[in-house]
Amino acid sequence: MNDAIRPQPGILDIALYEGGKSHVAGIANALKLSSNENPFGPSDKVKEAFQRSVHTLHRYPNTDHAALRAAIGEVHHLDPARIICGVGSDEIITFLCQAYAGPKDEVVFTEHGFLMYRISAMAVGATPVEVAERERTADVDTILAACNGRTRLVFIANPNNPTGTMISAAEMARLADGLPPKAILVLDGAYAEYVEGYDGGAALVDARSNVVMTRTFSKIYGLGGLRIGWGYGPKAIIDVLNRIRGPFNLSSTALEAAEAAVRDQDHLVRCRNENNRMRTWLAQALAELGVPSDTSMANFILARFASAEEAEACDAFLQEQGLIVRRVAGYKLPHCLRITVGDESGCRRVAHAVAQFKGVK
Ligand SMILES: *Cc1c(COP(=O)(O)O)cnc(C)c1O
User: What rounded mean pLDDT belongs to the chain?
Assistant: First the structure.
């Protein structure tokens, strides 16, 4: 034991992030509905790009990600010079904290917000500030009331995980406008593609100098295993983030697959349509069994039970049936289970199992 060797203050206070479970002891081929993955996976064009990349694996990837940024820019009508690509949007969140927050600074997020905001803030020695939500929905006035001269970053996912709820573009603009001068508003658009016609906040980024948007290939694009995401913001902020980005942070395989993915919007639309159809079906089926949920805008449902005990018991029962969903006690929702919208047969299995759990035939 060497007492002289110690991590930076605050690091040992970080609670380890636990990913969604992927196995149940004793059950082969359990259906994983715990990490909001796309049940259809990436498109065939993405798989072809992935396979092609095998021929250049001895080469370093390019450092500027120009081809992928150009593709994202074309598809979303954004300036590629203001796009940065990272190892998942998690890495963009990390860069923002590293570049803009440190000891004595505050990083604000909401009660049921994504756990990585807290972890990334604490990793740089900043103070995490958690703000209450109203009925599992972010509340702009409460967030603004928590901001002060020490606030450097305000993270908000829209739609939010694990609640699935969203706030309007007008509310988001009001939040951006009300922030103290040194604070950046970070709009996490991990689920933006599930909301037809929603730009993830890109227009707000363009209209303000204090807003950054993050996006990911892990959710609707079905590439969680590859680890790739991106951010869009004011040129000055993107330039700062690029200074701390490792030059080879993304593999050539990830870059080529992501480019093929963003260019295949037909696949995205098919996945969104199917997700939204089955999400409505599943939410209604569960509601009829006495398990309500807020209207979700994403690819999961936050199912509410009568108590934490009931949620836990249902989780255990679902596991026995080979269905893995997500407990969200760590998100201050101990009476809820987050259930990823799977394909049709997956959703039917969930509804059937919850019915059995509830004792309905
Ligand atoms: C899944 C998710 C992400 C994506 O993380 P990646 O690092 O891009 O895989 C970001 N934010 C939220 C709220 C998420 O749920």
Answer: 97
